[in-house]
C-alpha cells in the first residue's frame, strides 16, 4: 500500500514539475525577447560609426508653433514660413516654392509650384516623399531637405535629403541623413546658409511638450568622427548631441562662426526694417510690407526702386553741398564745380525719370493682379 501511495505521489508531481519547467522556459524566452533590440535601435547602431562631425555653436529653446520664424535665414537663401496648415519654403528669386499640407486622412504631403508671368502654377504633389513636412531647398536648386516619418526613420520625424535628377525629370530616392541630425525623437528641419557657412537643425529631443531646440551649427557634408578614437559611450553622446561643448574642438573656428552669426542677425534686423514699405497701388490699396506684392518680379523691382530712391537722395545732398561751397570758391574752382554740378543735375533728372517709370510699371501690374 505504501508503495502504491509513493508511486501515485510521483505521478502527480510530474505535471507540476513540468509546469514549473515550462514556466522557467517561458520566463527565459521573455527575458531574451525583452533584450532584443528594436528596428530603430538597430538602425541607430548601424548609423553610429558614420556620425557626422559637426560644430554646434549655439542652441535656443523656442515654441514649436513658431520656430520657423526664429531661424535667421538670409533672403539670398530663400524664406521659411508656416501656419496651422503646414510649412513653406520659397526660393530667393520668389519663383519656386515647396510647401506641406495634410490630406483628408491627416497625412502631411509636400507640394511644389512655380511662379510664371506673375502667377503660381497648380501645385504638384511630390508623392515619392511619403508622410513629409518642413521642406528646404538648397541654393543649387536641386537639393531638397525635408522631414518624414516611416520605416527609415529612427523615431517620429527624421531629416531626409533628395535631389532632382534633370536627366529623367524626377527626384532621386530620399536618403536619411543620419546622425547626429536624427534621433529617436522628432527632428523637424535642416536649413543651410552656404554664404555664411551656417546651418540650423530643429528637434524636440530632450524637450518638454510644445518646445523645440534650434541648434546653430557649422555645416559639414563629409567628415565623420573616427570611431576608433572614441569609446562607444562617447560616440553615442556625440551622435545624440548630449552636450554642444563636446563639439567645440577648434576655438578659433567657433569664434569665427559666432562672429558670422552675429553679423547675419544684424543684417537681417536691418533688412526687416527695410521690409516696412509705403507704396500706393490705388485709392483703395496701399502696401506696407514687401510681402504684399502679388508679383515676384515687382518685389525685385521695388527693391531696385528703393536703392534708386536712396541714390537720388544722396545725389541731392551732394548737390546741396556743392552749391554751398560754390559761392565761396575761387573762379577756377567754380568752373570745375560748375561742370560737376551740371553733370550731377543731369544724372538726377535721368534717375527721377527712371524712378517714375518703375513706379508706374509696378503700380499697373499690381492693379491688374488685385482685380
From TrEMBL:
Pfam families: PD40. Residues 1-18 form the signal peptide. Residues 302-368 form a coiled coil. It comes from the Bacteria. This is WD40-like protein. InterPro entries: WD40. It comes from Prevotella koreensis. Keywords: Coiled coil, Signal. The keyword Coiled coil applies.
